Amino acid sequence: MKLSSLGRVGQKEKFEGKYNRYQRYGAEECVLQMGGVLCPTPGCGAGLLPEPGLRRILCEPGNGIGCGSVFCRECKEEFHEGECNSLLSPQGAMAQKGYVVDEHAAMQARWEEASRETIKKTTKPCPNCNIPVEKNGVSVEVPVLPLPCSELELGGDTFIVLTLQFIVADACFSQTAVILLTLLYKHFAMTESNRSSAMHFASKIHDLKKCDADSLQIGKKDGKKAIEMVMLLEWWSGTDCTLYTDPASYHKYGKENAIVILNHNFEIDFLCGWNFCERFGVLGSSKVLAKKELSYMPIIGWMWYFLEIVFCKRKWEEDRKTVVQKLLNLRDYPENFWFLIHCEGTRFTEQKHQISMQVAEAKGLPKLKYHLLPRTKGFAVTVQCLRNVVSAVYDSTLNFRNNENPTLLGVLNGKKYHADLYVRRIPLEDVPEDEQECSTWLHKLYQEKDAFQEEYYRTGTYPAVPTVPPRRPWTLLNWLFWALLLLYPLFKLLINMINSGSSLTLASFAFVIIIASVGVRWMIGVTEINKGSTYGNNDNKQKQK
């Protein structure tokens, strides 16, 4: 049978609308707000973020953008020593002829021309629907077809194909997905009758590696590994999660883009944050500003890499370009997303709290009792890059009843916890645009968070209406499907080993299981407070920003 493509015209218009929105309101506005410049070379117009005060600007080529030209930051002409000649500038040249240049219109025209050239160089029209798709496909020489216009022909291996369809919908976060797709591509490519199926799944291998949400359009179907961990919290340990919030704000959750500020006091606070996202259907499109070291963790780190998580080294000189570029990419994200940021920069400990309060005293800032001094640079940059895209800031404060100290190992052992999450919705219009004013606003916010924490310890509740968002069945169903699919061959292999009677084979299998268990225990150790990052301790003390 064939699955015909639907809504090609509507998708094309949506695609073009996204490009127009990106061209006119996205990168240009944010680059200029960050003190950057646009390359003046005709046909380029790349957004650049040079160091402040740097006059010689290099439009460095990379990723299909950048022309390699060197120009003067002040006059936008070819770089030269000495003062700029006003006759060489657009204003001076035009003034001699009696014309007045509209700088905004000229800049927009250069940017649109550069965007058209970039699209022309890096994409080609789909033969079926004319939507631009990437020219560089996967390692095998097959056309890369977008999901709406690919026609999937099912041959005799219907079960495998249907299984692949499920993998494609969910594979972006499976550690086995790339391997499965690659092997099954080879299987389909062996026969001419399954050639179109092979091409379709080969394109998915490429999309999986890039995890391009614009082309995949999988959005809220994402997050397999996160779903599995949320399943452990919701269904395995049975942890209760009560939400305290304003009823007027409740109905907006999951229906808008938001920046989520969460306190960083517990080993499983990230898991409770995922649970909050899952209850409102945005788990797959949730993003986070995380430390670079986490990207190297097996499975979890790889999943976050495919999720396009924003990683930082917590050194602004090194993060300035990479973090801003990642944030700019979110402006054109096709689904509603939540961007989580721990403004404290590291998990709360008594030692880090003492050092943080010493910095607060030196800067003349009010001391906090239950939080570290927030690091304002990352938050200010996030607000600047996502303004006009994000609707609100969700100020979130997490606590556990009866002074519980939850651990990930406790969740795996099935221990039940009781989490209380207080969320305040603050419209982004209330957050100042100026970086210094934004910094002051964030410090005031954390003083209020400290007061809410004090009230919770005193009364055991928050000043809002408690509610329990309904638990959705998809986490459990997803886990059951993958457990059946992946554990079946494992058990079959184990039975064959037992029947073989080989002691060496059984010993090897037991050794692999032990290594896997040790690896899981090591990954759990990363979340433990006493083994956490030393960032913020005496031997790693840095200037608070």
From TrEMBL:
<keyword id="KW-0594">Phospholipid biosynthesis</keyword>
<feature type="transmembrane region" description="Helical">
    <location>
        <begin position="479"/>
        <end position="498"/>
    </location>
</feature>
<keyword id="KW-0472">Membrane</keyword>
<keyword id="KW-0479">Metal-binding</keyword>
<keyword id="KW-0863">Zinc-finger</keyword>
<dbReference type="InterPro" id="IPR047534">
    <property type="entry name" value="BRcat_RBR_parkin"/>
</dbReference>
<feature type="domain" description="RING-type">
    <location>
        <begin position="1"/>
        <end position="191"/>
    </location>
</feature>
<dbReference type="InterPro" id="IPR003977">
    <property type="entry name" value="Parkin"/>
</dbReference>
<dbReference type="InterPro" id="IPR044066">
    <property type="entry name" value="TRIAD_supradom"/>
</dbReference>
<dbReference type="Pfam" id="PF01553">
    <property type="entry name" value="Acyltransferase"/>
</dbReference>
<keyword id="KW-0012">Acyltransferase</keyword>
<keyword id="KW-0444">Lipid biosynthesis</keyword>
<keyword id="KW-0862">Zinc</keyword>
<dbReference type="GO" id="GO:0003841">
    <property type="term" value="F:1-acylglycerol-3-phosphate O-acyltransferase activity"/>
</dbReference>
<dbReference type="InterPro" id="IPR002867">
    <property type="entry name" value="IBR_dom"/>
</dbReference>
<keyword id="KW-0812">Transmembrane</keyword>
<keyword id="KW-0677">Repeat</keyword>
<dbReference type="GO" id="GO:0005829">
    <property type="term" value="C:cytosol"/>
</dbReference>
<keyword id="KW-0808">Transferase</keyword>
<dbReference type="GO" id="GO:0008270">
    <property type="term" value="F:zinc ion binding"/>
</dbReference>
<dbReference type="Pfam" id="PF16076">
    <property type="entry name" value="Acyltransf_C"/>
</dbReference>
<dbReference type="GO" id="GO:0008654">
    <property type="term" value="P:phospholipid biosynthetic process"/>
</dbReference>
<dbReference type="InterPro" id="IPR002123">
    <property type="entry name" value="Plipid/glycerol_acylTrfase"/>
</dbReference>
<feature type="transmembrane region" description="Helical">
    <location>
        <begin position="294"/>
        <end position="312"/>
    </location>
</feature>
<dbReference type="GO" id="GO:0005789">
    <property type="term" value="C:endoplasmic reticulum membrane"/>
</dbReference>
<comment type="pathway">
    <text>Phospholipid metabolism; CDP-diacylglycerol biosynthesis; CDP-diacylglycerol from sn-glycerol 3-phosphate: step 2/3.</text>
</comment>
<dbReference type="GO" id="GO:0004842">
    <property type="term" value="F:ubiquitin-protein transferase activity"/>
</dbReference>
<dbReference type="GO" id="GO:0005741">
    <property type="term" value="C:mitochondrial outer membrane"/>
</dbReference>
<dbReference type="Pfam" id="PF01485">
    <property type="entry name" value="IBR"/>
</dbReference>
<keyword id="KW-0256">Endoplasmic reticulum</keyword>
<keyword id="KW-0833">Ubl conjugation pathway</keyword>
<comment type="pathway">
    <text>Lipid metabolism.</text>
</comment>
<protein>
    <recommendedName>
        <fullName>1-acyl-sn-glycerol-3-phosphate acyltransferase delta</fullName>
        <ecNumber>2.3.1.51</ecNumber>
    </recommendedName>
</protein>
<keyword id="KW-0443">Lipid metabolism</keyword>
<dbReference type="InterPro" id="IPR032098">
    <property type="entry name" value="Acyltransf_C"/>
</dbReference>
<comment type="similarity">
    <text>Belongs to the 1-acyl-sn-glycerol-3-phosphate acyltransferase family.</text>
</comment>
<keyword id="KW-1133">Transmembrane helix</keyword>
<keyword id="KW-1208">Phospholipid metabolism</keyword>
<feature type="transmembrane region" description="Helical">
    <location>
        <begin position="504"/>
        <end position="524"/>
    </location>
</feature>
<comment type="function">
    <text>Converts 1-acyl-sn-glycerol-3-phosphate (lysophosphatidic acid or LPA) into 1,2-diacyl-sn-glycerol-3-phosphate (phosphatidic acid or PA) by incorporating an acyl moiety at the sn-2 position of the glycerol backbone. Exhibits high acyl-CoA specificity for polyunsaturated fatty acyl-CoA, especially docosahexaenoyl-CoA (22:6-CoA, DHA-CoA).</text>
</comment>
